[in-house]
């Protein structure tokens, strides 16, 4: 869904792409996608072709956040990997052009499913996109970062220890009030950190079905979007992120599957998704999954706290939506504690 773009200088974008972007005939029409809470995203109609522009938000930002240059780099590296991503065209790191760094990529036509219940598909057709999602995730985690030039895309060392420290710091920097459940979760995760098993793979960081474009029949993945949180890390973080999302309430805000009769609705259970992933990667199973799930809830809570802080500071792309999302931080923290408790961690 798009709307007129009032927060971007269209003339300056047109000047920048002139002579650089294939198919640009001198006329540029720009609309803003409703998606893209973190990095505002725009549809560019450049005459013969359509493109997408993603930029950093305006205003003061947390260090290392909204790294559009990393999004551009990782998707460029994945072009020939077998993991479907849009074709990258231009990266502009000069804030003077439109006020913030941005990049331009191909617009990928197809279907996007905002609701993991897939209500627009017949029951018998719902398993196929979920299985395709599973296939793409497993394929991503089989990519050798060194072979595609991304060996330096993340620091060495224990991924979960590093990420816990990073997101704790980000959370504290954007903290607007004391949330007891979040404080307990941070402490519990630190006490339950598993030994580093040495797995280093490219991770997406926000792998969900609504960050994917499917072919018009809804079966095959055409592109994985929103690589802002990608890094070299532990593949189980991505897998747990999928399960975390499904454990949220259904509907516009939660976009989850909690309370849904998945068998009746033609949807995979959490365990079926995990088992299919392990089969595709040749894994016997995953021990201590509750830790990875608890960590996923924690990180999302920290991200949503940052969204709330930007709204309060007047820098949110969609202020009302940002305030709503920020209100879920305590719920995510409590769900993280529950995941640890359920697994006996």
TrEMBL record:
It is an enzyme of class 2 (transferase). Keywords: Transferase. Its EC number is 2.7.1.-. It holds the Pfam family APH. Gene3D superfamilies: 3.90.1200.10, Phosphorylase Kinase, domain 1 (3.30.200.20). InterPro entries: ACAD10-like (IPR052898), ACAD10_11_N (IPR041726), Aminoglycoside_PTrfase (IPR002575), Kinase-like_dom_sf (IPR011009). The keyword Amino-acid biosynthesis does not apply. One of its GO terms (molecular function) is transferase activity. Residues 30-252 form the Aminoglycoside phosphotransferase domain. PANTHER family: AMINOGLYCOSIDE PHOSPHOTRANSFERASE DOMAIN-CONTAINING PROTEIN (PTHR47829:SF3), HYDROLASE, PUTATIVE (AFU_ORTHOLOGUE AFUA_1G12880)-RELATED (PTHR47829). This is Putative aminoglycoside phosphotransferase.
């Amino acid at each position: 869904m798009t709307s007129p773009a009032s927060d971007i200088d269209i003339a300056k974008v047109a000047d920048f792409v002139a002579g650089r972007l294939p198919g640009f005939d001198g006329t540029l029409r720009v609309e803003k996608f409703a998606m893209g809470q973190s990095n505002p995203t725009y549809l560019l109609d450049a005459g013969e072709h359509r493109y997408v522009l993603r930029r950093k938000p305006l205003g003061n930002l947390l260090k290392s956040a909204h790294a559009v240059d990393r999004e551009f780099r990782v998707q460029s590296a994945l072009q020939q990997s077998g993991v479907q991503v849009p074709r990258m065209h231009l990266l502009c790191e000069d804030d003077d052009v439109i006020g913030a760094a941005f990049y331009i990529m191909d617009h990928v036509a197809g279907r996007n499913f905002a609701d993991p219940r897939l209500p627009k598909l017949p029951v018998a057709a719902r398993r196929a996109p979920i299985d395709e999602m599973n296939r793409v995730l497993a394929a991503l985690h089989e990519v050798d970062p060194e072979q595609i030039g991304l060996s330096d895309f993340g620091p060495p060392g224990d991924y979960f220890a590093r990420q816990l420290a990073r997101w704790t710091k980000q959370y504290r920097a954007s903290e607007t009030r004391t949330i007891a459940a979040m404080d307990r979760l941070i402490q519990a995760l630190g006490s339950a950190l598993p030994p580093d098993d040495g797995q280093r793979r490219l991770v997406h960081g926000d792998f969900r079905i609504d960050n994917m474009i499917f072919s018009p029949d809804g079966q095959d993945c055409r592109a994985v979007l929103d690589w802002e949180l990608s890094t070299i890390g532990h593949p189980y973080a991505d897998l747990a992120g999928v399960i975390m999302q499904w454990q949220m309430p259904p509907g516009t805000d939660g976009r989850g599957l909690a309370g849904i009769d998945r068998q009746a609705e033609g949807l995979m259970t959490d365990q079926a998704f995990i088992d299919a992933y392990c089969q595709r990667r040749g894994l016997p199973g995953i021990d201590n999954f509750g830790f990875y799930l608890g960590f996923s809830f924690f990180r999302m809570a920290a991200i949503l706290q940052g969204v709330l802080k930007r709204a309060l500071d007047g820098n949110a792309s969609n202020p009302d939506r940002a305030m709503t999302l920020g209100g879920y931080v305590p719920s995510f923290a409590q769900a993280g504690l529950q995941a640890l408790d359920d697994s006996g961690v």
